[in-house]
Specification:
Layout (H helix, E strand, L loop, with lengths): L7 H10 L10 H25 L6 E9 L4 E2 L5 E3 L7 E9 L7 E2 L5 E6 L2 E6 L7 E8 L8 H17 L10 E7 L2 E7 L4 H7 L9
Antiparallel strand pairs: 1-8, 2-3, 3-7, 4-5, 4-8, 6-7, 9-10
Helix pairs in contact: 1-3, 2-3
Length: 211
């Protein structure tokens, strides 16, 4: 049976990047390799998510909390929640609590509006008096099909580094080493990190609010 990747487009890009021909009649060893590649890609996307401070892969029902006292006023006097994320973003619902012990009360969709400003998502509110903590539920992120090229390329390169080094059994991804002396014995720890080039490619998708 032909292997079906969790990330079809990214998986195909990985194979092309590493000059690997996909085997449609894969045996157990090839299936194991393909499954391992998917694991490496998942790890790469998770590292990218951490670096960018936002959810990158398509996610349904993600909940954010925020303080209504932190709303910002724009030049027209309207109040909004500061920029949240710059990935595809659809609000499912917004609710609030007067105190943390209260039952969540839904806010009517007519009392808020999602607006894109300079590539970032901004939510405006008509009323918020008496509100304390806000609870925002949304569907957000990119599917594998519409993942931006730069993000996909970084994920492929990171997973490819692991693939090429896996035969020696050591994860030297990023090749950043730090020496440490433990009881008179010098050891070296190798950290998993993005390269400066990767960080540059991911800069348009990196935010500082609502990690």
């Amino acid at each position: 049976m032909s292997y079906a990747s969790t990330y079809p487009k990214t998986f195909d890009r990985f194979l092309r990047f590493n000059d690997i021909t996909f085997n449609t009649a894969a045996g157990s060893d090839i299936e194991r390799l393909y499954g391992t590649i998917d694991i490496w890609l998942a790890g790469a996307f998770e590292r990218i998510k951490t670096h960018c401070n936002q959810t990158i892969q398509a996610t349904t029902g993600k909940v954010f909390t925020f303080d209504f006292n932190e709303l910002v006023t724009d030049s027209g006097g309207d109040y909004y929640l500061p920029p949240i994320l710059n990935v595809p973003f659809v609000v499912t619902s917004i609710g609030y609590k007067g105190t943390v012990f209260d039952t969540l009360t839904a806010i009517s969709s007519g009392d808020y509006l999602l607006v894109t400003v300079n590539g970032n998502q901004r939510i405006y509110f008509r009323v918020w008096s008496g509100y304390n903590t806000g609870y925002l539920t949304a569907t957000l992120g990119y599917s594998d099909t519409n993942m931006p090229e730069n993000i996909q390329q970084v994920a492929v390169e990171m997973a490819s580094t692991i693939y090429r080094e896996s035969h020696i059994g050591g994860d030297s991804l990023g090749k950043k080493q730090e020496s440490e002396n433990m009881q008179g014995v010098s050891t070296t720890t190798i950290y998993y990190e993005l390269t400066p080039r990767h960080e540059k490619l991911l800069k348009p998708y990196t935010v500082a609010i609502f990690p």
